Amino acid sequence: MPPGITTLAADAPALSAANTGFMLICSALVMLMTPALAFFYGGMVRVKSTLNMLMMSFISLGIVTILWVLYGFSLAFGTDAGSIIGWSQDFVGLSGIGVTELWDGYTIPVYVFAVFQLMFAVLTPALISGALADRVKFTSWALFITLWVTVVYFPVAHWVWGAGGWLFELGVIDFAGGTAVHINAGAAALGVILVIGKRVGFKKDPMRPHSLPLVMLGAGLLWFGWFGFNAGSWLGNDDGVGAVMFVNTQVATAAAMLAWLGYEKLRHGSFTTLGAASGAVAGLVAITPAGGAVSPLGAIAVGAIAGVLCAMAVGLKYKFGYDDSLDVVGVHLVGGVAGSLLIGFFATGGVQSDAKGLFYGGGLDQLGKQAVGVFAVLAYSLVVSAILALLLDKTIGMRVEEDDEVSGIDQVEHAETAYDFSGAGGGSSSRSTPPAPGTTAAPTNKKVDA
Questions:
Q1: Among 21, 76, 313, 387, which lies 20 to 30 A Cα-Cα from 320?
Q2: Which H/E stretch holds residue 317?
Q3: Is the pLDDT of residue 16 over 80?
Q4: Would you say 172 and 369 are in contact if contact means Cβ atoms under 8 Å apart?
């Protein structure tokens, strides 16, 4: 994602109404991805955890929005300090920004860039929540989000996208978030689950998705919103790069879905709806860093490779014994790593930059840079996220009580249930036909299950 750059006064761009409108639409599409993720994750858990899963995504919309305005935008995209973090007093509270002030080198207002980036910041911690289903206190989760975006997401966003950030200056390519979003979230998920442990009944009790239609709805909305996530990350629509990214997003996602289903059929004998949804998300993850560097044929390769790798990776939790509830590690971490590293092979040098991958005559140079970015973000997020989880676990506690987990976290943490079956099959008394005058209603021994 291109950060602000300095231009000569004579070449300074003017505000573009078209690009501004385009970016506002893209921002709204990215915002939609967080509720879409809530549906995707919500359908994958058991009935007793549905509302908690939805709320773990929705609370990120509240917390991260306020933190972004107060100091997050300044830390991520303010003036560079030592290639590690940013800071600009004018960005604190978004109070020193002119209404028509442009993001340096671009034709969109600073406010538009800030709100677009806000939606990325909101989505990233929400991605982590899928690994923690069924067992985390809601208060602890809210505090974790607050700490995590402050000490992990904001700095990493500056490394990758901020002018002066060390990974940006190194030449690491991350068009829309393979490292800053997906590897960051996937590594964080792994760090936290290693601290808090497994769900009660892991590898013993069936933990099947309670609503596959809800999963498919969430996946479809994610696919839709991802066009804003990816194509919008070029911050304009003047030179065709965003259009290439739009096409590659569609192509890679389709390839990954088909590859996942093909692997699933060979490995397990069936084409499942959960596999189709998961494969699509794997493709979206993988093309996010790579889509501005590869051709549509390269996007097919990126999507297909990621689809197979992620399908294979989701089973590793049973082999190694870590409880990644909804496969955040298997899809987002593995997909993000695959997409980021494959740039080093498939970059054509003819789209967002002149950097070429191994298959286009560029040697191993870009692959080496991508590897540095991948493993630096992975290691930092994994370690710091584990430390934050350990800190919260030793103070206020991260997990609900075992009995509460078994009975259902929705009722314990939210005093609600996702579905009300109390009137199933009988209708409500307000809509029943009253007995005729002079008669009494027939007695019934029918029991209604709650």
A1: 387
A2: helix 316-320
A3: yes
A4: yes
38-82 pLDDT, tens digit per residue, is: 999 999 999 999 999 999 999 999 999 999 999 999 999 999 999
Question: CA 129, CA 124: separation in Å to the nearest integer?
Answer: 10
Distance in angstroms (rounded) separating the CA atoms of residues 302 and 340? 10
Query: How many residues in total does the chain contain?
Result: 450
Q: How many CB atoms lie within 10 A of CB 203?
A: 11
Query: Tokens 């299950």 identify what position?
Result: 449
Alpha carbon of 350 to those of 240, 248, 252, 314, 360: distances in Å? 11, 14, 18, 34, 10
CA gap 92, 94 in Å, rounded: 5
Compute CA distances 6 → 156, 294, 314, whole Å. Answer: 22, 27, 44
CB 418 within 8 A of CB 41: no
Model pTM score: 0.91
Residue 395: both structure tokens together:
């103070």
Contact predicate 329/281, CB 8 Å: no
Q: Give the 3-state DSSP-derived string for 183-209, with helices as H, strands as E and coil as C.
A: HHHHHHHHHHHHHHCCCCCCCCCCCCC
* CB-CB contact of 219 with 277 (8 Å): yes
CB of 293 closer than 8 Å to CB of 175: yes
Cα–Cα distance for residue pair 174/168, rounded to 1 Å: 9
